[in-house]
Specification:
It is built from 9 helices and 14 strands. The chain is α+β, with helices and mostly antiparallel strands. A 4-stranded antiparallel beta sheet has the order 1-2-7-10, covered by helices on one side. The two termini are 27 Å apart. The relative contact order is 0.15. InterPro entries: PP2C, PPM-type-like_dom_sf, PPM-type_phosphatase-like_dom.
């Protein structure tokens, strides 16, 4: 929240949110490093403002949207090396090695992993025992729901290893949110057992004229009524599609960005006051006086912090080193406990 400018309008706040989420994820990862935490986590963060939904995620904890007519939309991107060719190319270009676990005799088993560390994800928070090219920069997507509302299903990989997005959505239609979440978990356990973290949160975004519907009533008595509001039946042909048209009953895609380059995500259109003394780091939100400390530029020379040309907003020395390390230009282990 500290990365969002104060005193701005609601529309400007929503516009600034994706950039602030990127800063928050990177800052959290730096905090993990400084504390010496070796284990890491996937993360999916959802911000609901009226009918506008913004989702930031790293890893494979998926968030799906189920709307009236039964259209299921995926609001996250799975950062699994096995399935994401673009992320494999990025990791190898940054200095990592992508391969399967090699047993004695040269036999390769399991999913594609990144070495060092053997992580099968290309993005996460923490995981300080792997290379810096496993980045905490989230995929961010912002959509506007139709006037009929919708249902968000947010779950960890133990759910999605067992159930498809369509199966999870269909399994709990017509049920109150809390009961729906429990049913999704139960269905996943029934399908594959408890093999990984199996956690689910269901959030219903319902128009104000339907808010009088008691959420705690028996699902059997209210099942048909709830289905008629936002969770109706659908054809299989619309699985995974996200409509960009602006019309009644359609989901409007407002923003989507998944680049792993911090410069592209923070952008050049930063508030002008961020470039005036004192300098505030766009990631960690720490103020520094002009010319306080030295920063290393990309060719190894020393220069004062304000004059370092990288095209984005001001970054403090630690966050600049973190940025370079994520791009394969420099290791930041010496300064951040990796």
């Amino acid at each position: 929240m500290s990365a969002v400018p104060q005193g701005i309008s609601r529309e400007d706040w929503l516009q600034a949110l994706p950039r602030a989420l990127v800063a928050g994820f990177v800052k959290t990862d730096i905090d993990f490093q400084r504390k010496g935490e070796t284990s890491g986590t996937t993360a999916t963060l959802v911000v609901v403002d009226g009918f506008t939904v913004t989702v930031a995620s790293v890893g494979d904890s998926r968030c799906i949207l189920d709307t009236q007519g039964g259209e299921v939309s995926l609001l996250t991107v799975d950062h699994r090396l096995e399935e994401n060719a673009e992320e494999r190319e990025r990791v190898t270009a940054s200095g990592g090695e992508v391969s399967r676990l090699n047993l004695c005799g040269g036999q390769e088993v399991g999913p594609l992993r990144c070495w060092p560390g053997g992580l099968c994800l290309s993005r996460s928070i923490g995981d300080t025992d792997v290379g810096e090219f496993i980045v905490p920069i989230p995929h961010v997507k912002k959509v506007k729901l139709p006037n009929t509302g919708g249902r968000l299903i947010i779950a960890s990989d133990g759910i999605w290893d067992a159930l498809s997005s369509e199966t999870a959505a269909q399994a709990c239609r017509g049920l109150p949110a809390e009961l729906a979440a429990k049913l999704v978990v139960k269905q996943a356990l029934k399908t594959s057992g408890l093999k990984d973290d199996t956690t689910c949160v269901v959030v219903d975004i319902i128009p104000s004229d339907h808010c009088s519907t008691p959420p705690a009533l028996s699902p059997k008595k209210n099942q048909n009524k709830l289905k008629s509001l936002i969770f109706g039946r659908r054809s299989h042909s619309s699985v995974g599609k996200l409509s960009k048209s602006v019309s009644l009953g359609a989901v409007e895609e407002i923003f989507e960005e998944g680049s792993a380059m911090l410069e592209e995500r923070l952008g050049r259109n930063f508030p002008s006051k961020a470039n005036l003394p004192p300098f505030r780091c766009a990631v960690c939100q720490v103020d520094q006086e002009p010319f306080e400390g030295l920063m290393m530029d990309n060719v190894g020379g020393c220069c004062s912090a304000p004059s370092t040309p990288w095209g984005g907003p001001y970054l403090c020395s630690d966050c600049r080193k973190k940025k370079d390390a994520m791009e394969g230009k420099r290791s930041s282990r010496s300064t951040t406990c990796r």
